Every structure is written in C-alpha cells, then in structure tokens.
Fold this protein.
Amino acid sequence: QVQLVESGGGLVQAGGSLRLSCAASGRIFSINVMGWYRQAPEKQRELVAGITNGGTTNYTDSVKGRFTISRDRDNAKKTVYLQMNSLKPEDTGVYYCNARNTIYGREYWGKGTLVTVSS
C-alpha cells in the first residue's frame, strides 16, 4: 500500500501563489507516475499536472504557464510539489495527490487539500 499526505492548501487572493506538497510513504518503489488532480464544487475531478519518474511533465491547458509540478531531487522519496502562481478564482477546489503504478494498474489517492481563491 501507498499513503499520500497533502499539505499547503489555504485561502489566497486572486493573483497570489500557493505551493502544495505531497509526501508518499509505504511501497513507494512501485510508483512511476505522480500528479495533482482537483475537484471544484459540482464538477468532476480533473487532472491538473503530472510527472513521471523520468521527469516528464504534463499540464491541463488552463494552468499552463502558471503552475509548475516538480519532485524531490531524491526520487526515492516520491515527494511532489505543485507551485501555483497567478491564481484565479476558477482554480478553487480540493486538490488531490495521485500516485500510480502504470505497469500493474494500481492507483492511490490522498485525502485532498482545499484551495480557495478569492476575487
């Protein structure tokens, strides 16, 4: 099993910044992709950004140029970050950390951290 713990959410004004962190523990050697998803009120959960063990990143279009996903330099620690700049009210939602083993099709989720952007 893999446990994921997010931190760094909060309330910020539009145009501000937040940095989310996600620390993985347990059988982390099995993880090869990590990412951040978000779920706004009354909307489906969506992928925000992802990063592979090799460092390849991807972002949803609405956050490109504003958000940056990164990982601990010690890849064995399986810690990922999401730097969020120029935040907009539409970025409001619960942000979930996700970890996957794409070879065996296993997926793990954190409990989420709330990000609220006021206008």
Summary: The chain has a mean pLDDT of 94.
